[in-house]
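Morning!

This is the sequence you dropped in the shared folder:
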Amino acid sequence: MGFFQKIRKEGTGDSQEQVQLTTEPKFSHLVSYQSVQRRALIGWVVSRCAAALKLDELDREALFLKSFEAISFEELEDGLIKELMQLADSLVDWIRANAVIEEEMKAIHPEHISKDVLTRVFSEIQADVKFDDLQPIQKENAWEVYRDVIYASTHGSFLLIAKNEIKKYQQGEQLCSVKIVNREDVPKARNTAKEVFTDLGLSSSKVMSYNLIISEAVTNILKHAEHGEMTIYRAANAFHVIISDKGPGFPLKILPKTTLMAGFSTKESLGQGFTLMMKMAKQVVLETSETGSTLILILEAGGDEHANEK
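The structure's back. Tokens below.
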């Protein structure tokens, strides 16, 4: 029996009529706008957690509805559902207090859900809620602050750019272009890049390093976006590996942790990818929005003592 039936079905009968009767929602206990607003946020949080747990759409909808119906989360019988609701309720308070999720989660010891999964999802939700609350001019100012702070903190290794700045990295000779749609395209992109760098006389060690971070970036497309493309340009003294995708983008708030905390990972981040990229590339450049991202790896084109090694 799925969560939908488990949550919605009351009594012992199995008739379709009984299921339909018991699915009628009861919201009379929600007597204020604030209580409805809070329950809506709790339901959204629980639904996001359910998605992370790979529950199907029907189950997620049932959980969302249950967040409104339950008079008291403490009285829920199912252990997983009770835990989800109570933790989501706590998250609402943390968001309103602008708390650091990772610090709050140190005191939490969930019984039915992975703590790492909860921390990841809660961090994503906090970033979404807080950024959506900003007015357009505030968002623009916030973007500039994040750009400048991350750039300074990484000593120029990581640069946030606007969409209209991408074109300057598309100058020079285009060496290759590969569409990224399915798993088979990942090794195809990796091998294409390897051939390009090898034919240009880069050392095997440099080709291996470049391929490692290119593979990391390309694999990310299939994890978090619909599709994408890898294109490599040769500029005066560098290669510009441009990897674009059509996906949800990177929430602005998680970028400092993604770029400065080794091993930090969320559904929408590259995990250890950014840290690795900054070690092996001259610079990592990122443009991101809710419609997709463009990641640009600036790689040295020469200066290798084994430049003619095949």
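Headline: The chain has two domains: 3-132, 138-300.

More detail when I'm at my desk.
O.
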